[in-house]
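input
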Amino acid sequence: MSAGAAGAAAAAAAAAAELMRQEEEEMTPYTDKDLAEGWEFKIVRANSALFRKPEQLRAVLEEERKGGWTLVEKFDDCRIRLKRPAGTKMIQGDFADGYDPYRTTVGISQGLILVIILGVVFGLMAFVFLMIAIGR
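output
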């Protein structure tokens, strides 16, 4: 991939992320009542369609209950919005089992996705070069 193509891909990714943030802002208006009652909110994102399968969504929501979070809405297969009373105390051991009540991403990490994509690309390139070398 050339530097220009990489730059264009990075710019497109940044534009898509900004569009998603803007969409979330418009989709998540908080009423005066929400704020007066002392709720805190978070959006949990997945880098794949993790929330498409009901059992995976239930598993994430069950884990989030440890921190007092409840589902408000499912935006799409990659994003959900949760809420809990502001000032909810940490349950002893929240962090001991690896759960972070302030996490905002679940599932496969972007770094692992990148490694997989690069592995596939370089594997295909090696295969093509091998086929060319054998053909000579």
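quick obs: The helical segments are 3-27, 32-36, 54-65, 110-135.
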